[in-house]
Write a structure and sequence with these properties.
- With 322 residues, the chain is of the alpha/beta class.
- It folds into 2 domains: 160 residues, Bordetella uptake gene, domain 1 (D-Maltodextrin-Binding Protein, domain 2), CATH 3.40.190; 97 residues, D-Maltodextrin-Binding Protein, domain 2.
- The protein is built from 12 helices and 11 strands.
- The strands form 2 sheets. It has a 6-stranded mixed beta sheet with strand order 2-1-3-10-4-11, with helices on both faces. Strands 7-6-8-5-9 form a 5-stranded mixed beta sheet, sandwiched between helices.
- Helix 3 packs across helix 10.
- The longest helix has 21 residues.
- The radius of gyration is 22 Å and the shape is globular.
- 43% of the residues are buried.
Length: 322
């Protein structure tokens, strides 16, 4: 009799919007793996968001920076963790977008993870050295076509978003622009400013100081809408390139197999954080705009981003070593 009553109670609890598990979760601090070293933009985003997220959940987030392997080390650690909601990771366009598209990696970015929600995104900007005689995307394309092989662009490294975004433009326009890969965005920008390269697709945050100084010129931004920080710069879609909405994005994931009610609680509280009045101001330093999504929407976004970059990598024959 007691067992039957217990089963009936358990069944009734499971049918409620929040089960007992979700109601008691979290009961201890949450580990939040960030796949970059401390001090960078992604780390700042993680700390700003998790400080507020933890306050809503009633338990702190412990940020665990695990850089290396382009996010592979952090991704493996997350995929191997218990799916109890106490280990999460800040996924981003490299770990769940460009890296799976261009390399053989020791984790499955879809099957081994549970999407929690998108945090936010920032566009990439098509920029040229101030001495390049182009003020629009069309003028840049014409300039490159008149000077085949004489125009070069820098990237943060092979397979990076800065690399693939320019390759996407090359595919769309048929221009021949030479790729010069660097170890990181800073040296690539330095050579653009010095005139060693002529064009680039950096993230908005990295580009803004140099755009404001006049040493580089913005021609267009990626994304479906103009950036609030570059209101006079058109999107590539406005310039005639439909679907050119590649973004540098950040979101949260956990290991595969997490309980649905825990995922919902995490998503509900994360969305509440993203809608808080002061968060946009805090993220403005990285030019990131909050972009709340449901877990299903975020999962669909990840799949579509991987598919987009995988198709481009195959078409442009970009396959990198592990």
């Amino acid at each position: 009799m007691k067992r039957r009553l217990w089963l009936q109670a358990a069944s009734a609890a499971a049918a409620l919007p929040g089960s007992a598990l979700a109601q008691s979760y979290p009961a201890r601090p949450i580990r939040y793996i960030v796949p970059v070293a401390a001090g960078g933009g992604s780390d700042m985003i993680a700390r700003v968001v998790t400080e507020r997220w933890g306050a809503l959940l009633g338990q702190p987030f412990i940020v665990d920076n695990q850089s290396g392997g382009g996010g592979v080390i952090a991704s493996q650690a997350t995929a191997r963790a218990a799916p109890d909601g106490y280990t999460l990771m800040q996924a981003y366009v490299a770990t769940h977008g460009t890296t799976p598209a261009t390399r053989r990696i020791p984790y499955d970015p879809i099957r081994q993870f549970t999407p929690i929600g998108m945090i936010g995104a920032t566009p990439n900007v098509l920029v040229v050295n101030a001495n390049v005689p182009a003020h629009t995307v069309g003028e840049f394309v014409d300039y490159a076509k008149r000077n085949p092989g004489k125009v070069s662009y820098g990237s943060a490294g092979p397979g990076s978003l800065t690399h693939l975004t320019m390759e996407l433009l090359k595919q769309e326009t048929g221009i021949f622009v030479v790729h010069i890969p660097y170890r990181g965005i800073a040296p690539a920008i330095n050579d653009l400013l010095g005139g060693q390269t002529q064009a680039m697709f950096p993230g908005l945050a990295a580009a803004l100081p140099h755009l404001r100084s006049g040493r580089m010129r913005a021609l267009a931004v990626t994304g479906k809408a103009r950036s609030a920080q570059l209101k006079d710069v058109p999107t590539l879609e406005e310039a005639g390139f439909k679907g050119f909405d590649a973004m540098q994005w950040y979101g949260s994931v956990g290991p595969a197999g997490m309980a649905g009610d825990v995922v919902r609680r995490l998503n509900d509280t994360q969305v509440a954080v993203l809608k808080s009045p002061d968060l946009s101001e805090k993220l403005a330093g990285e030019a990131v705009e909050p972009w709340p999504m449901t877990p299903d929407q975020f999962g669909d976004y990840i799949r579509s981003d991987i598919a987009r970059w995988t198709a481009l990598a195959k078409a442009r024959k970009i396959q990198l070593e592990e």
